[in-house]
Amino acid sequence: MKTMEGIVSEPANKHFLKMNINPMRVGLILYRVLDEIQITYGYSPHSTEILKENLADMIRSTLEIYNDPEELMLLVEQTDY
Fold first, then answer.
1. Is residue 51 in some structural domain?
2. Quick one: what percent of the chain has pLDDT higher than 70?
3. Is the pTM of this model over 0.70?
4. Which of 4, 17, 37, 53 is the most exposed place for a label (fewest CB within 10 A)?
5. Are 66 and 72 in contact (CB under 8 A)?
6. Which of left, alpha, beta for 42 (phi over 0: left; psi -120 to 50: alpha)?
């Protein structure tokens, strides 16, 4: 979780989602990983919620780059192979 805390607390101009082809998918996968860690290892729900809120803010700020709704839909529908 210390690694996750470090990843989620990066400044907005340097965070990992902006350098990814599909930032929405990566953000949601990381969100799920936080859930799995909490359930599997009994990590504090309060700490996990704080990390999830920070991650959701990162996802929102990254998606604000896409002004065109059609461009955003292509991102959502994109399949990684």
1. yes
2. 94
3. yes
4. 53
5. yes
6. left
Report in angstroms the alpha-carbon separations of 52 from 9, 19, 32. Answer: 11, 20, 9
- Residues 17-36 pLDDT 10s: 777 777 888 888 999 999 99
Domain of residue 49, residue span? 2-6+21-77
Task: Spell out, as residue ranges, where the chain has pLDDT lower than 50.
Answer: 81
Number of domains composing the chain: 1
Q: Quickly list H helices, the chain.
A: 2-8, 23-41, 45-63, 69-77
Contact 17, 62 (CB under 8 A): yes
Cβ count near 49 (within 10 Å): 12
What distances in angstroms separate CA 78 from CA 22, 27, 44, 69, 75, one per listed residue?
8, 14, 34, 14, 5
